[in-house]
């Protein structure tokens, strides 16, 4: 059975205007999207800017509220769950954003950032937490002595490694990557992509992977979904999709 099964997902944003901020229209950002994602699989999500990729990704994680549709994680539909009922599922779904600097608190040390989810979920504290954080640093290719440093003391690629370590901290089943290497130097992109691939081989979680660079998507994905105006217009094995025009 699929880890994630999305059925007829719809997200309409209200557009407000005028000094009274009344609703003047609706953006059909996602308009009936269905796909499934197996355990240990990577599904690439491509399409031009504004076609709804980020909205799909954020809705699947319930960071954005779906208008309608089902989001089944291990067969359980999480779309209608209350915030409280959703909590146990949050642990298994993580996101890595495009700009690692923007998603890191500049006043927290890298070690505290990576260990924060462990604290929030009450999973580890004190020495046990430090050990787990050191292990996560090592998994993403950072040194344990860098735990005391602040985000500005890291390079762009290293900052994305901090975000990845934080995403790994709770042992996720699904990691959504929303343009995770687009803000990085081209020379660093391959290193981060190869790290993501390597981590998946060892830990067997799934990726929903958004990127506009088709070479990057083709490299990391097993299957690729092509979006256009809020819908998936093609979904296929990457070899089939990129073989011939
Ligand atoms: P992509 O990730 O493919 O660039 P998005 O999911 O960001 O696409 O956006 C899809 C559409 O939804 C776009 O037309 C965008 O302007 C619109 N949109 C995204 N977020 C919001 C929002 N919070 N409020 C209103 N419209 C939004
Ligand atoms: P991206 O394509 O990487 O999502 P955008 O500039 O389209 O970048 O969106 C950046 C943020 O602004 C996202 O959180 C998105 O949901 C939000 N956003 C996009 N379009 C709109 C919109 N029309 N109204 C309000 N928020 C929007």
UniProtKB/TrEMBL annotation:
GO annotations of cellular component type: plasma membrane
GO process annotations (BP): peptide transport; transmembrane transport
ABC transporter domain location: 4-245
GO molecular function annotation: ATP binding; ATP hydrolysis activity
Subcellular locations according to the entry: Cell inner membrane
Major location category of this protein: membrane
Top-level taxonomic group: Bacteria
Job description of the protein: Involved in beta-(1-->2)glucan export. Transmembrane domains (TMD) form a pore in the inner membrane and the ATP-binding domain (NBD) is responsible for energy generation.
Name of the protein in its database record: Peptide ABC transporter substrate-binding protein
Species this protein is from: Bradyrhizobium macuxiense
Coverage span on the entire protein: 5 to 249 of 330
